[in-house]
C-alpha cells in the first residue's frame, strides 16, 4: 500500500495511550494495521505518600511521544502528519484529577496505584450495595470528603487522566462508558451513571455540607462509535509542538486501558476474557448473566459499548520478576557474558518451564505495593523456602512467574469456582507473554482455561484505542463493535492457543495452597520491615 499518500491525505487514524511506564502512540492504516509508532518512557513519583505523575510530566511525555511518532513516519515514508481521519486517547484507568472553576488542578493526580481510600471504599460499597474499589474516582472523592480536605469545597470538575486528555484536546468533558465505569457505577440499561446511586451519593454530599452536585462534577458518558468532540486549535498546538497538525479531527470517547485491552484482543464479546500482564495485571470476563453476589475482590466495569464485565485488578505483576532478571544480568556481566535483555528473559523464562509443576516447595510474593484482593495496604517483595525445598534455577524462575499471577488467580477463582462463570477463551497480552510458550502456559494452568495470544498482542492498548477511533468513523450502519472487530480487524488474524495441562493445573493449585498459608509471612514483613 502507498502509505505515504494515505498519511498525506489525512486518512490515517491515531491512538495514544498513557500506560504506567510508557506512553505509546500507534498510527494505523486502511486495514487497521499499525504503520508507525512513537513512545515515551516515564515513571510515577511517590510524593507525600501519594503515587502521582505531574502535569508537566504528562505534557512533556505526550509531546515527546508524538514527536517520536512523527520521526518514525518521516523515516519510513518520507512525509509528515498534518491531518488525521480520527484520533483517540486512553490511559491507566481510575484515579483522581480534581479541578477548580478556572480549570486549575487542585491536588496532585492520584493514580490507580494508591491504596489510601479503604474507609471510602467500604462505606460506598455498603451505601450502594455495589463493590466500589479503592482506586475508583468516586472512592478518592469520598475519602477526601471524609478527610475534610480543604480542596473538596472548590471542586468543579472530576476527571481521570484519559478524560483530562479528551478535555484538553477537544474542550469537551466526555469519556467512554468503559472509562466512566471506573469513576462511578454504570447502569447497563441506560449506559450512563446509575441514577439511584447518584442520588444516594448526593445525600452524603449535602449531609457533609458541600454545595456542588455530583452530576455536575462527573464528565459526560459516551459509547464506542460516538464522537466525543473535535480537536481544537489549542489542542493541536499542545499535542504537536512542531505546529503542523491541523484541528478539526474527530476524537473518539476516551477509554481506560481495560477497554483498549479488550478491544486489542478481540475480547469484547460475551464469554470471552483477557488478561493484561505488565507492571500490574488485571483479568476481565464479559458476563452473560449477572453475578449472584457482590464480591469485595471483584470490580464491575463495562466494555466500550457498555456491556457488564467482571474484573480482578492487581497492583503488582512483573516488577519483582524484572528485578530478579536484573540480578542475573549483573551476574552475566560480572562473568564477562554479554546478553541483551530479550535473550536473557527468554533464557530464564524457558528454564522455568523445566521446573516442578508446584515449584518444588518454593514461595514468593511480588508485592511492591498493597493488594486489595489479598488484604494488604502495603507490600514487601519476598522469596521464601524451607530447608528441604527443591531449590533450582528452574523452580526459582517458575515460582516468580506463578507469584506474578497469584493475586489474579485468587480473584478470578471467585468468578470461575464460586459464581460458575464460563469462559470460552482468555486472550493474553502484555510483557509477560512476550516469550512464546511460557506466560501463556502459566496462565492456562492458573485459570484451567484455554489461553490465546494473538500475533498483534504486542501492539497493546494504543492500538486498541486506534481501533476504537477507526470504528467511530468507519463502522457500517448498525454494525456493533463486536462485529466490526470480527469482520474488519481480526478476520484471518493468527493466534496461538494453548490448552491447560492437567499436571500444571494441579501444580498451580498446590502452589496456591502454600501461597495462601504464607500470607502471614508477607504480613509480618509489612509490619516489621519499615
TrEMBL record:
Residues 274-472 form the Carbohydrate kinase FGGY C-terminal domain. GO terms for molecular function: kinase activity. Belongs to the FGGY kinase family. One of its GO terms (biological process) is carbohydrate metabolic process. Keywords: Kinase, Transferase. The keyword Kinase applies. It holds the Pfam family FGGY_N. Residues 13-258 form the Carbohydrate kinase FGGY N-terminal domain. It comes from the Bacteria. This is FGGY-family carbohydrate kinase. It comes from Roseburia porci. CDD domains: ASKHA_NBD_FGGY_BaXK-like (cd07809).
